[in-house]
Amino acid sequence: MENNIKPDLLNWETTKIKGFSSKQLIEMKNGGLKLIKVEPNSSYPLHNHPDKTEYIYVLKGLPEISIGEDDFTGKEGEFYILNESVRHSIKNNDSKDCILLIGSIQS
Q: In this protein, which residues make up the domain named Cupin type-2 (predicted)?
């Protein structure tokens, strides 16, 4: 694993969800970390992970984050924890891109 990763030199990779792209920063057996760009009017459908906890740090934008029964309008500098098996989703209803740092840890 590299000790110095320069995200600005990495290309945005398209994901299976329209309007979402990523830059993989860390990928390990027990988890990972990536930058996620969410284009305007894009949403990641409600889902859960039975074997890992995810976390989101909002770097830019105003994402709508649903965690279980709670809905949040994320702001830059806020941190969210998505515990294993809890359903969650992400939407960007703004007219500008949203940038998130999303990581996961296996249970």
A: 35-101
- pLDDT, position 107: 84
Taking residue 44's Cβ as centre, other Cβ atoms within 10 Å add up to 20
Residue linked to tokens 């007219």: 95
Q: What is the pTM of this model?
A: 0.93
Of 107, 94, 105, 89, the C-alpha closest to 17 is 89
| Cα distances (Å, whole numbers) of residue 65 to 2, 13, 44, 75, 82 | 31, 22, 10, 10, 10
**Domains in the chain with CATH codes:** 33-101 (2.60.120.10)
